[in-house]
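Hey team,

Sharing the MerR family transcriptional regulator run so nobody has to redo it. Sequence (153 residues) first:
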Amino acid sequence: MTDHVEIDGDAPIFAIAAAAELSGMHPQTLRQYDRLGLVVPARTQGGSRRYSLRHVEQLREVARLSADGMSLPAIARLISLEQRVHDLTRRVRDLEQQLEAERQSRPGARVFAAGSTGSVVTLRHGTRVRRATELVVWRPRHPLSPGAEDESA
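Structure output:
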């Protein structure tokens, strides 16, 4: 039986030469894209560039879009938006995991509702609340007429 190992696509593991080879570009092109902010790799303490699998995919995408005639500023904007989506997706996944962990840690969580007098009422899970027959959402103190000035001013 083989163990399935999941690779972190954001792990900065490739030196510039390896990333250039994997993306089919010259290392100088990668340096230029870094300077332009198109594909910005992580840096080691010594300042060397380290590319992730996601960076390599971005480099391939830049090459494809550029070959299709898209300008580098447009490509930079597209990559920026894709990065934002990636970050937000990761954040949502993390929050969903936190929420599920919270739910698991509180199996007997209580449900609250507003009572007819405005008080907080604790309900058992699965209990339905009877509907009130009357509900006043808002009632003005003084009848308003068109063009009437505020009396308190």
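The two ends are 82 Å apart (CA to CA).

Ping me if you want the raw files.
A.
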